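Format notes (please read before filing issues)

Several people have asked whether sequences and structure tokens are stored in separate files. They are not. Every record keeps both together, in the order shown below: the sequence lines, then the token lines. Line labels are part of the format and must not be stripped during preprocessing.
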Amino acid sequence: METFNNIKKPSKIEQELAIESYDALVSVIDQLKLDDPEIEIEETQERIKIPLSALKLLSEILKAMSQGKLFSLVPMATEVTTQKAAEILGCSRPHFVKLLEDGEIDFTKVGKHRRVKFEDVLNYKEKVKKKQKQQIIDIMKSDEELGLYDS
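Then the structure lines:
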């Protein structure tokens, strides 16, 4: 499995191939009736059973590639360093460490080093996004009540 350091943007050729593959895969997935369909690799004529959920994940990967987006698959139980977690959140490492010390995000210590579950970092990021969205809605409502915002 690729690490964060090996992630690179898809080339134009990869994007074009991903567009074709995505369209074909989505139309095939819509027609499937089994949860464990069998696919065939044309080059080797090898047939492989694959979970439907894995095919759907592959379609999401192809969609991201077709749009030229960077992507990475990370097992949810993966632990990350404080530096990597800070990069994921878009903040400094010292600020992230303060979040840990304030109990905002769970962590474990390995020797002197803190480790954080990737899933916990994503959950915190989502929580912050929801809070920000609600604050914007509250500000807009307040502005409407004061007559500062025209609908």
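For reference, the curators noted about this record: The chain has five helices and five strands. Helices lie at 12-31, 52-66, 82-89, 93-101, 118-145.
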